């Protein structure tokens, strides 16, 4: 299927075209300025690097089952990705992009795990909406995210614009901190050593392409 060979950047161009027709230009400008601001103010994103041991964790999945990293690693490598939430179109695009290559990830001996600060209900929502066949975990308060990537407080301008568009940001989370993780991806070996760690910075429109993950798993 051609969908398996479409890069994130190609999908991003389609998404941008769609957002341009769906959202008022003023609203899209607010979100884009926010992304540029975050890129400028968050440069050193990663808290762990290749060669470090991955911090272990236990988090609830979309059906409230507890998933422990060390248990998943007993089965093979783990591709760990941190995302913002089901309301974020770029997160939906990224996770769908990864889903399209999930068989190849599995064939290379790895499991895919996605983490956000959303509630389990919202994790279930994003799984069903994007037909995701991998674990989507809830990291309330970004406890785990802080060990891997940068966490920041969402600014007033994008939040106010979301509200004006009819999106209830706070309904997706168990707290009112409005904190989000900067998207990042890690490949973790069976012995918990991180072999690949990457973030494209604070600009959440940009995400690690699955081709880089595949290449990392092949090494």
From TrEMBL:
Similarity comment text for this entry: Belongs to the peroxiredoxin family. BCP/PrxQ subfamily.
Organism of derivation: Aquimarina spongiae
Protein name, per record: thioredoxin-dependent peroxiredoxin
Function: Thiol-specific peroxidase that catalyzes the reduction of hydrogen peroxide and organic hydroperoxides to water and alcohols, respectively. Plays a role in cell protection against oxidative stress by detoxifying peroxides and as sensor of hydrogen peroxide-mediated signaling events.
Boundaries of every Thioredoxin domain copy: 48-219
EC number: 1.11.1.24
Biological process per Gene Ontology, one example term: cell redox homeostasis
Gene Ontology cellular component annotations, sorted alphabetically: cytoplasm
Enzyme superclass (EC): oxidoreductase
GO MF term list: thioredoxin peroxidase activity
Catalytic reactions of this protein: a hydroperoxide + [thioredoxin]-dithiol = an alcohol + [thioredoxin]-disulfide + H2O
Sorted UniProt keywords: Antioxidant, Disulfide bond, Oxidoreductase, Peroxidase, Redox-active center
Disulfide bond recorded as keyword: yes
CDD domains in the record: PRX_like2
